[in-house]
Amino acid sequence: MAVTRREYIFSSFLIGVVSVLLIVVAVSSDSWIVSSASAQGQIRDNYINYGLFRGELEINILSTPVINTLYMTCVVDENACAVSCKTTPEARENEVRALAQGYRPVLGCNSDSTILPGDLLDPPPVISFAFYASTLAVIFLHLAFAVISSGLAIVNATRNPTEPIWGLPGCLWSNAITAVLGFTVLLMFGVYWATSGLKDHLAFSDTAQISYTLSQGLGYSYWLLIAAVIFSLCNVGLIELRKYLLERDPPPPTIKVENHSDGTIFLY
Q: What is the pTM of this model?
C-alpha cells in the first residue's frame, strides 16, 4: 500500500489554525503602540496603548488612576487619522481635523473640541489615512489567505482534490502568499513607525502638546504577526518535506500480466 504521509498535511492545518488565531488577536487587540509618558509633578507615569481601532489612556495625576478609552478616528478629506479620548464622535472628528491642520485642540477627555491659541504643530501629529487604510487592507488580506490555506490543508488531509488550485499546489502557494502579506504588514508599519514621526507624537493630542518624556515602542499586537509569518513558512516547509519524502520512498509493487491467454483475471 502506498504511503501518503497525510500527517504532514494535517500538521499544516493545525499550524494554520494557530496562525489565523494569532492574526485575529493582532487585529483586535489594543497594543500595537504602547508608551509611558512622564511629566514633572506626577506621582506615576501615564500609560498609553492602542491598536488599529481603539485603546486606553491611563492618567496618573492623582493617587487613583483614571482610565479613558481611545478611539482611532479618521478624517478622509484631511488624509488624517489619530487617536482621541473625546467622548462624542463629533468632538473626536473635530479634534483630528484640528490636529491635521496643525492647530491645538483643548486637552481633556470630554466633548469640548475648542481650538486653543498658540503656534502650529509641525509636523501635524496624525497618521496618514492612506497608510492606515492600506495597512488594514493588507492585514485583512493576510487573514483571508491564512483562512484559505488552513481550509485547503484540511481538504487535502481528508481527500484528494483533482484540481491543482484545490490540491497541494494551491495549499503551498496560499501559505507562501500568506507569509508575504504578513511580512508586508510588518515592514509597512515598522518603517512608518521609524520614519514618520509617529513615535514622537503617537498621533495623540496630549503627547503632541505636552512636554512628556515618552518611553514608547511597538507592542505585542505587532509582534504576534512575526509568529504568524513564521508559522506560514513552516507550512511551506512541511508541504515541501512531504513531497521530498514521497519522492524518496520506493514505488508500490506492481504485478505484470504477461502471456496469459486463459482468461484468468488478476485483482490487485
A: 0.86
